[in-house]
Specification:
This protein is an alpha/beta fold. The chain folds into 2 domains: about 230 residues, 3-Layer(aba) Sandwich (Aspartate Aminotransferase, domain 2), CATH 3.40.640; about 90 residues, Aspartate Aminotransferase, domain 1 (Alpha-Beta Complex), CATH 3.90.1150.10. Helix content is about 40%, strand content about 15%. The strands form 3 sheets. The chain has a 7-stranded mixed beta sheet, with helices on both faces. Strand 5, helix 7 and strand 6 form a beta-alpha-beta unit. The longest helix has 16 residues. The structure holds pyridoxal-5'-phosphate. Pyridoxal-5'-phosphate binds next to helix 3.
Length: about 350
């Protein structure tokens, strides 16, 4: 069978030969004793890249978000997030289970909340019978909204609001690299508005495993404790940190190519009779689109028979994601197959 063109997610990438070489050659030690030189190198490198005091390597994006929220809150606190946030839909109810907190989802436009909406959601201090608002969480880029970038103006206004109400801010920056490359705004600048940031190496950057939490020294000290308590302490994990370090040093700039491929694919789909795409939301490597003639599940099954994998996200909606294991010729071939199936 011909090569599968896998557009389900940017998490499906396989480590390149160069990345595997870096993993093979990694110096390692026991990271629970903080003695893994490659992990330490990665943590220093990323803290510097984000302009923060410290960082902590963790197994996954979910763990990075959940440890951050745990450190920022006390039980019965409330976290304001957008209604399509990853922490709300795709983290197995962990804020409630692990931190004893609840989420207050706010309906943004294409994943973007403004300061006014957030201010309406902040609980009055004197209302002792209400939960306490503690954190504002923002996702950049926003996955479920289709890789949409949070405008810096909104972020700065929300930070002012957070300062006014003495709230903390957490950034789910699983794909912050994509936002930075697309806008030219340095990662440091994005990170500067947040108390804690999570970011993933295992998505567009192409590493097999790993995420990072970035913040102040005190914050990371506490995060280190929570990571151990939740069973996330790892030993000779420099082998994985080497892949992450390789990814962050070599694979950020090339994300531009993924964005260009997504634009080409989205433009072609927008011209197809039975597909609707809002091109305004195609700002990075994710395309959310609607199929009007058949159900999304049927569409993705028929497409899979032709060797193209795309994830249904609803009855009529699907998600296609470009990444470093999809070439331009794969995109042209996917366009042909999508055209045939949507008819
Ligand atoms: C925005 C966002 N945050 C967090 C995560 C969680 O990452 P992981 O799958 O590594 O736990 C994802 C995964 O897709 C994501 O898209």
């Amino acid at each position: 069978m011909a090569k599968l063109i896998d557009l389900r997610s940017d998490t499906v990438t396989k480590p390149s030969p160069e990345m595997r070489k870096a993993m093979y050659e990694a110096e390692v030690g026991d990271d629970v004793y903080k003695e893994d030189p490659t992990v330490n190198k990665l943590q220093e490198y990323v803290a510097e890249l984000f302009g923060k005091e410290a960082s902590l390597f963790v197994p996954s994006g979910v763990m990075a978000n959940q440890i951050s929220l745990k450190v920022l809150t006390s039980p019965a606190d409330e976290i304001i997030c957008e209604k399509d946030a990853h922490i709300f839909h795709y983290e197995s109810g962990s804020p409630a289970a692990l931190s004893g907190v609840q989420l207050y989802p706010v309906a943004g436009e294409n994943g973007i909340m403004n300061a006014e909406q957030i201010e309406d959601a902040i609980r009055p201090k004197e209302a002792y019978y209400m939960p306490r608002t503690k954190v504002i969480e923002i996702e950049n880029t926003h996955n479920r909204a289709g890789g949409v970038i949070q405008p810096l103006k909104n972020i700065t206004e929300i930070r002012k609001l957070a300062d006014k109400y003495k709230l903390k801010m957490h950034l789910d920056g699983a794909r912050i690299w994509n936002a930075s490359v697309a806008t030219g705004i340095p990662i440091k600048e994005y990170a500067s508005y947040f108390d804690s940031v999570s970011a993933c190496f295992s998505k567009g950057l192409g590493a097999p495993v790993g995420s990072i939490i970035v913040g102040s020294k005190d914050f990371i000290k506490e995060a280190f404790r929570v990571r151990k308590a939740w069973g996330g302490g790892m030993r000779q994990v420099g082998i994985l940190a080497a892949a992450a370090l390789f990814a962050v040093k070599n694979n950020i700039e090339r994300l531009k190519e993924d964005h260009e491929k997504a634009r080409q694919l989205a433009r072609a789909m927008s011209e197809m009779k039975n597909i609707e795409v809002n091109l305004e939301t195609v700002q990075t490597n994710i395309i959310i689109f609607k199929i009007t003639k058949i159900k999304a599940g049927t569409f993705s099954k028929k497409l899979a028979e032709k060797g193209v994998l795309i994830s249904p996200t609803g009855k009529n909606t699907l998600r296609a994601v470009t990444h470093l294991d999809v070439s331009y010729s794969d995109i042209y071939s996917a366009i042909e197959k999508i055209e045939e199936v949507q008819k």
